[in-house]
Prior knowledge:
The chain is mostly beta strands and 119 residues long. 14% of the residues lie in helices and 41% in strands. It has a 5-stranded antiparallel β-sheet. Strands 5-4-7 form a 3-stranded antiparallel β-sheet, with no helix packed on it. Residues 20-79 form the Cupin type-2 domain.
Amino acid sequence: MKLAVLKFPTLEHxxxxxxxxxxxxxxxxxxxxxxxxxxFFFLHxxxxxICDGDExxxxxxxxxxxxxxxxxxxxxxxxxxxxxxxxxxxxDGFAALxxxxxxxxxxxxxxxxxxxxxx
Length: 119
């Protein structure tokens, strides 16, 4: 999984915006946020969102909001990448956690996907 912070939280707006990429077979670990709503707008691909034991299929053009305290993860069981723009509100340290992690590199397809959607 690859993450890039596009907008860091500020004192006025405690929300972060992140570009996320799940490689084929990729997933994040089951996680939860005590105070934050996490929203995903899926740009390309499809996958499965798991929230408190329930599963829902997600795909390009779809929007998903996960509530605080939910146990959740997104899994890409497909042979192609899954892309999303994610917001975390309040940020509650999410952007800092991403920035403190292991640096990652985006490939040409990732950059193309982002630049096509950023227009």
